[in-house]
Amino acid sequence: MAVATHCPYCALQCGITLDAGTTPVGLSGRNFETNGGALCRKGYSAAQLLEHPERLHSPLERGADGVLHPVSWERALDLVVHQVRAVQQAHGKDAVAVFGSGSLTNEKAYQLGKFARLALGTSRIDYNGRFCMSSAAAAGNKAFGLDRGLPFPLADLDRAGTILLLGSNVADTMPPFVRHLESARENGGLIVSDPRRSATAELADTHVQPAPGTDLQLLLGLAHVLLAEDLADTEYLDARTWGLESLRISLASWWPERVQSLTGVPASVIRQTARTLASAAQAARSGGKPVYILTGRGVEQHANGTATVSAAINLALLLGLPGTLAGGFGTITGQGNGQGGREHGQKADQLPGYRKITDPAARRHVAGVWGVDPDIIPGPGIPAAQLLATLGEPGGARMLLMHGSNPVISSPNANRTAAALRRLDYLVVSDFFLSETAAQADLVLPVLQWAEEEGTMTNLEGRVLRRRAALAPPPGVRSELWLLAELAARLQAPTVFNADPREVFAELGRASAGGIADYSGVDYTSLDAGAAVYWPCPAGTPISTAPGERSGTPRLFLERFAHPDGRARLEPVYPQPAAVDDADLRPGTISLVTGRLLEHYQSGTQTRRVAELQQAAPAALAQIHPDTALARGISDGQEVVLENSHGRVEATACLDAGIRLDTVFLPFHFPETQNANLLTGDAVDPDSSMPEFKHAPVLLSRLERH
Ligand code: SF4
């Protein structure tokens, strides 16, 4: 029977149809608003994962011989409970930590946060979204009082005349997105900023190539020009924002020639880009085509990521765009449930509904839904990078439960993470394949894949989508909701943990009621009937199931921003020195930028197991400018070494004149000696705890084999 569901991978959540009645399982693109029926290579081949021979079918316990052996679920559950009790008795509640994911369904993300706080009584929960959307989230909250990736439907871009796209390569990472850039392209208004001529930059009318780590300075230069040339929308700023005078002072010294000296972007291009944006925004206010500014991980995954996104939002506010029909600001969420994953309580400092865990009223509300005393909910934990770095150390966790993440590949300074995991007393990993992190575990728990479970995901627009089960799971595999409910019961948690996703979603809605991300008006029945629902959607909101109609809040901020006074904040930002270890400030280094390929998704745990994807992109290619290569005696296709104080990576040289002379690009999907995150560092953003992923000094040389 054909089942309508969504792709398991990225936040575009393309519509697909699965047919479990065929062998192998049939998969085709479905006409959904984000993808129009199109899928990328990853999506088309996703069904190959469902019957993959490397699928885990039984819990695995590491024996005295150091090898993982199959055990029963009964034993696996008993082991987890025994270890939790032993570790917490010896070291306290916070000695057990939980690490979640932006790929979990809303229901699982919610239940994981509740499980950590109530069944384990630990504050130590965070998730891999800290490495993904946290800078954008922090900046959005500061400026608008609310963080939703796109505060408007993606289809709004289909009318755009101008789009400034900063640090995002959607043509490779989510190809069906490109159709939403067509209107701007036809208008000659697609501007892409990226240190390399990416597949998306190839499509652009204007490609700006700042040096890695200088996106913030470029944005300050653009904003400087708007104010210096009286191009800002002062009427909008007066009516809808605070902070213009402070911003004006902060921008005074960022004249284009100074910005050129730091970014490498010619002053004339900075001036022209600012003028183009201003004239397009003015035309949009008079009924012309809208103007959008969009950011991606390229500008966000930095130790100054929050400041950089704040600068991009400032630019959009100076142009008078957010909260209008003349355009807006948005950030392009990456992981499949990168949006929902950060709303339901997986973050160290949050409770469901995007509530602050330190807010007494929020604690009372959520405790009421959970049926517990607010005082038993632990306080804030520590963010992901710190949680991982301190594992097994004094004050750090000694046991870790990992769900939907593979930090041995995806965390910064991956050597350090692998070593930290080895220091643990006990590591439990729930996954459907033996990822590189699972391979280090003491206990591996095999869980459902996307096409075997019911649930919801929230896509990059804040639209809540139904994930549907199309086929029965293999014997021996369990849902994470069942797993958490079983463990909670054995740990004598002070409240009930439901294993039924529909019930968990209803509870999630009650817990979120009145919060920023309010889901209390959303239910499975209306989603199944085809409703397009965007949060916030409080209980009682009329829900339409008519085709083409939207319910909830598809467009945020049209009346007011989410701060109590309804106004947006202009945030003055002041660049700090680059977050680079002294040991890496050596002559001859160039900047490493990491990113994704068309063929692979995140740490590659899934896509490296799909034969056609792995054949197309089997190994790490280092993209290097021909002149940079020539200076080091490197030719195309030759093996090279990249190294710095954190580690050493081997890759194959791919010469490309589209990348800057001072930059080398590596994809981050590959393991062992090809793992790009062996080279990324320990610095994190002070506001969001986002690690510095996109700028690491490295020495590049030919690989000499002796
Ligand atoms: Fe769509 Fe993303 Fe899946 Fe590709 S990976 S089909 S872009 S949801």
Number of strands: 29
Mean pLDDT: 96
| Beta-strand fraction estimate | 15-25%
Unreliable stretches (pLDDT < 50, length at least 5) are: none
Derived from helix and strand composition plus strand pairing, the structural class reads: alpha/beta
Output the CATH class name of the largest domain: Alpha Beta
Distance between the termini: 58 Å
What is the CATH topology classification name of the largest domain? Rossmann fold
- Number of contiguous helices: 23
Second rung of CATH, namely the architecture of the largest domain: 3-Layer(aba) Sandwich
The global form is globular
Integer-rounded radius of gyration: 24 Å
Largest β-sheet summary = 7 strands, mixed
Helix fraction, binned, reads 25-40%
Describe the fold and architecture.
This is Assimilatory nitrate reductase catalytic subunit. Residues 1-52 form the 4Fe-4S Mo/W bis-MGD-type domain. This protein has five domains: 2-49, Single Sheet (N-terminal domain of TfIIb), CATH 2.20.25.90; 60-132 and 337-447 and 479-510, Rossmann fold (3-Layer(aba) Sandwich), CATH 3.40.50.740; 134-332, Dimethylsulfoxide Reductase, domain 2; 517-561, no CATH class; 582-702, Barwin-like endoglucanases (Beta Barrel). Helices cover 29% and strands 17% of the residues. The protein is built from 23 helices and 29 strands. Helix 8 packs antiparallel against helix 11 (256-263). It starts with a strand and ends with a strand. The structure holds iron/sulfur cluster.
